[in-house]
Amino acid sequence: MNQRTTSGAWIKGVTDMFASQRLDVAQLCAGAGIDCTQLSNPNYRCLTERVSALWNTAISISGNPNLALANPHLVQPANFEVVGYVMISSDSVRAALERLQRYLRIVSDAATIEQITRNGLLWVELELYGGEASIPSQRYVYDLLALLTFLRWGSGNCLRPLHASLSHNTAHASLYQEAFQCPVQFGAARNAMAFKPEDLEQPMLAANATVAQLHVEHAGRRLEQLKMPHTRFRAREIIVSKLADGEPRREEIAAAMCLSDRTLLRRLKDEGTSYNQLLDGTRRELAQRYLRQRDLSLAQITYLLGFADQSNLFRACKRWFALSPSQYRAQT
Hints:
- The chain is built from 15 helices and seven strands.
- It is an alpha+beta fold.
- It has two domains: about 5-225; about 230-330, Homeodomain-like (Arc Repressor Mutant, subunit A), CATH 1.10.10.60.
- Strand 3 (about 110-120) and strand 4 (about 120-130) form a beta hairpin.
- The longest helix is centred in the middle third of the chain and has 19 residues, at about 135-155.
């Protein structure tokens, strides 16, 4: 099983926001299996499933489906671990984002951030991985807003996206547009923000090459300390890129990684997984995301997951969720 985790520092930012809304943080953490007394411990990390459980519990107790919009200004550099200090000492917003991408696993290996140029705009796209649990939409909203708030603060509060897109739907669109300070598309295929490329060239106010280098060296040591396995992440990225062409063969993935099939098998085994487990887990995570997107038909999802026909998708969903694809979609 691929166990993905998030740093206690990031969760501390989330719980600080909950506390500002007069929620009982100790109760919420206990219900999600998180030790709130350890959130200031730099070595403490939580399974991504527990982070989702924390959000679900907070939404349920607060009765506020828009809780993720509350107090995004509370985010601090320390919530990004050492990566936050690398970012604020970078030359520009774009450089800060590039460094976040490079060192994101320190904050969480259950997330990826990409910068993609599309139609003349630069999109910052966020993807989260839920493991054995579906991902509450509030996690996406909070993470994007926290990143936007941090970049605004670090660059002098001038940064504003042209558009934002969120994969969930809401009856409170105006609240989100106010928070992001731009038009927001709901029920979208991705969770992302679009900027003018030149806007990301704005300097960070605390830019300092010497200080940045010190933080970069520290971040590099943190990655080494975490001893995060890389093979399964690289293999997963290649699997995702090839699924729409049909189920990728293990030998094909090994070749794309410039490894022999035997070496790929050995490295995955050393990281506590196998190719079949990785392929199945990747499909499961993607299925959770695709089934939340109402504009995708089951036939399209079958194709995107590399299944030969819809009966294979049906059997996989019954095994993953004990529900049919339609039943799973109806409850999300």
